[in-house]
Amino acid sequence: MKRKVVMSLIPAAFVAMSACNEGEPSKEDILANALSESDELDAFYMETDMQISMEGEETEKMNAKEWHFPEDSGISKDRKELTRNEGTTTYIVSDGDMSLSYEEGDTEAVQNEVIQAEMESELNQRLQMVEDYQDTHDIELVGEEEVNGRDTYHVLMETSDEEAANEDVEVWIDQENWLLMKQISHMGDLRLTFEIIDLDTDPEYDEELFTLDLPEDVEIVDNQVNEIEVEESVEELSVDEVEDRFGQPVLLLDEEAGGVELENIEYIERSYDNFDEEELTFTYVKNQEPFMEMRIDEPTEEQQPVESERDIDIPGRAEHTIRGEDGHSTDMDTLRYIIWTEEGLRYNLSTQQPEVSVDDLLEAAERMESSS
After folding, report:
1. Bridge partner list, 37
2. In what order do the strands lie in the sheet with 150-159?
3. What H or E segment, with its residue span, contains residue 249?
4. Quick count: other Cβ atoms within 10 Å of Cβ 207?
5. Which range is the signal sequence, renumbered to this chain (predicted)?
6. Which CATH code is given to the segment(s) 2-226?
7. Most-buried pick from 56, 63, 143, 302 (CB within 10 A)?
């Protein structure tokens, strides 16, 4: 015997609508329409495929079917079915107030309260990426193409900085309703493809969509039961106390040469889900503003890089000799850092300041001095 339960969906991203300008739109018009407000979304059914490939070989595949019905109150009723690698299916349905998710074969279904703001954020995730990339990528309107029976505009977004760890993106935007019909992201050897393979903008409403027959032995649990409890303690240390902790001197930035000041040293302990971790962070400021951070730890054997990892093409990553030791840097849009190990301690020197380059970090590392 099976029992019927109302369940919920955290909707996927990929929808934005607005009115289309008359005439042939420019690339700016196309992106502006795709990025316009989606508060008045119409109902839809869509089926999507997503594939992840590494070095041309498919490593992950997911199919998603989604039904979305907005209501005048501002909430929506939804259903989603996710099948990963042609295996079991996860069902997520929502009546707008409560949600429940269940994967075939599980003994539990997870129930939680729907937070509409979170749903909207999920809905616009991919389009938010497109918006962010307008400032960091060169944009080209490739032309008009058909994607699964829909007329679309093909837009290419290429990173302006080939050394940075951001991706080149191609998007195909529906000419009628401004849906993101297809997206291909390239990041080194990694390729991610998302595509809407079936779309119905006038689906039939059926209350049965928002219910699910669960096996009789499945237990419904509250989401709070599955939440991970994190315990964290923060202790401010002196340089002497850091030396005592490691049993040796440590390297510090040359404050005079770099025009920086060590604001504080924090030792953070976290414990969650039977896992413990420690973090020792040195915060350096310049003109009273955060400028650089340095983390020091004692690397375990598992954290040591292996030869196979060095062969992987990771955008934004480069190998260096730092203070006579093997190390590497990573250059991303909003973060740059360098890592190396010296005298048994691993150093991570980073910055989020756009004016500070990887070369600046390398120079700062070479000027570092022993704490005693």
Report:
1. none
2. 137-147, 150-159, 168-174, 180-187, 190-200, 44-54, 57-70, 76-84, 89-94, 98-103, 108-113, 219-222
3. none
4. 9
5. 1-18
6. 2.50.20.10
7. 63
Domain boundaries, the chain: 2-226, 231-370
Task: Report residue 127 CA to chain centroid gap.
Answer: 13
Task: For domain 231-370, say whether CATH 1.10.10 is its number.
Answer: no
Under 8 Å between Cβ of 318 and 310 = no
SS3 of residue 106 by DSSP = coil
Amino acid letter, 328 = H
Q: Is the pTM of this model over 0.70?
A: no
pLDDT tens, per residue, the chain with 372 residues: 444 444 333 333 333 333 344 567 888 888 888 877 444 457 889 899 999 998 888 889 999 999 999 887 778 899 999 999 888 999 999 988 889 899 999 999 999 887 554 444 344 566 777 777 777 788 899 999 999 988 999 999 888 765 555 678 899 998 888 888 899 988 878 889 999 899 888 999 999 999 888 999 999 998 764 556 778 899 999 999 999 999 999 999 999 998 999 999 999 998 876 778 889 999 999 988 889 999 999 987 655 554 444 455 566 789 999 999 999 999 877 789 999 999 999 999 999 888 899 999 999 999 999 998
Structure tokens at 276: 């413990």
